[in-house]
Amino acid sequence: MSQSDRGLRRLAAGTLLAAFQGTTAPAWVLRELEHGLGGVTLFGFNVAEPGQARELTTALRAAGEPVISLDEEGGDVTRLAYHVGSPYPGNAALGAVDDVELTRRVHMAIAAELAACGVNLNMAPSADVNTEADNPVIGTRSFGTDAELVARHTVAAVRGLQAGGVAACVKHFPGHGATRVDSHLAVPVVDVGLDVLRARELAPFRAAIGAGAKSVMTAHVAVPAVTGDAPATLSGAALTGLLRGELGYDGVVVTDALDMHAITKSVGLAGGAVLTLAAGADLLCLGPLPTYDDIQTIVEGVVTAVREGRLPLERLEEAAERVAALRAWFGAPHEPTAEQNGVGLHAARRAVRLTGAPEPLVEPLVIEVDTPPTIAVGDVPWGLGPWLPDAEIVRVGPEAADVPVLLAKAANRSLVVVVKDAHRHQASQDLVSALVAARRDTTVIEMGLPVWRPGSGAYIATYGAGRPNAQAAVELLGAR
């Protein structure tokens, strides 16, 4: 292989953020990092505990200069605490409090934990304005439904993360909040005019750019007024015209995971890689599914596209320059920030809302109504278990639940029903309504968005399902 061929392959590999299974780095990852692989994206299955995560990232750094990224949003979406639940409330809870200094402090604490584990790029915050209540993929990941509120908290999150030396990646450009389709499964459409897009979806991104956000993540959503039928990730009009041109952004553009169906079921992994690079992306998050062979195929696809003139070499060189500038920022001195113990619980306590008055707990029966996890969240534990050790806790699927049996079990006892985004699941609503109709003194705890309310004796909204959200709810029950 000639020197020019090796240089081209290195440029192509330098755009990729690969993933791998397990808690140690496979030999192929270390080898590819030596040969110029841009970096890695870590998932919950890569992290057992902080010490192991630090050993893993130390090994990765010994092989190259990787961008080491993951999704640590707080609340429902966590990778460091995937097996136990996040110690921080997510964006919906912080938006409900609406204290930008608190949002900044929470994200400084998150940054401290990430930096201690060797992570230098956080795929957060979500800057999506969640105007669609039935949104299956954003929900509590958004600060709220108001563009100005979302903008000011996005800025606070960016500043908190980057004060701790961890680059923020503001997502999902140009906005995933007005969709009713999960882009892991298909291409959602945000069918609004440019005036609405600028005033609503783009406002938080414009603010984040002004605050110095180091990276922005693309969305696999089509915005017909800008992208036609194509998802923004593959659209030069969105990434180069709108983001670079109109909004003046010159930082690193990172794609959402290219293994999502919005890409793989339309243009394929390698085809998607070429198209998004041509559109203006700099780093390609591949997601957890692509194998080493897939990654080799992607590199070959990018190299071939350059040789055939479908992808300008200058585009790869420009991406390499932007990523090099990001790496230089990683290496610059950052003032260390101590982990702020307790800020997560403090924030969750300020966010929780109580309607009505719970009766004193008497041999409580807690019915947790199971909710299918979204792909972005994964199977992260949630519920009241750790905070009500003396209660009997039953996890039920709403379709299979036997209401008379549950009511008989709850006889002469306090009944607490826990749901998560009940407004999106008719079977959950039906089950809770039947229980409340028979037991008006039921306390319902909603650990998603409090859109649907069943008229129970007491109703607690936590705005998220992280560990501190659950603890704050239990405190309102008067448990001792």
UniProtKB/TrEMBL annotation:
InterPro entries (UniProt xref): GH, Glyco_hydro_3_AS, Glyco_hydro_3_N, Glyco_hydro_3_N_sf, NagZ_Beta-hexosaminidase
GO molecular function terms attached to this record: hydrolase activity, hydrolyzing O-glycosyl compounds
SUPFAM superfamilies documented for this protein: (Trans)glycosidases (SSF51445)
GO biological process terms held by the UniProt record: carbohydrate metabolic process; peptidoglycan turnover
Domain Glycoside hydrolase family 3 N-terminal: 34-325
UniProt keywords, alphabetically: Glycosidase, Hydrolase
Family stated for the protein in its record: Belongs to the glycosyl hydrolase 3 family.
This protein's name: Glycoside hydrolase family 3 protein
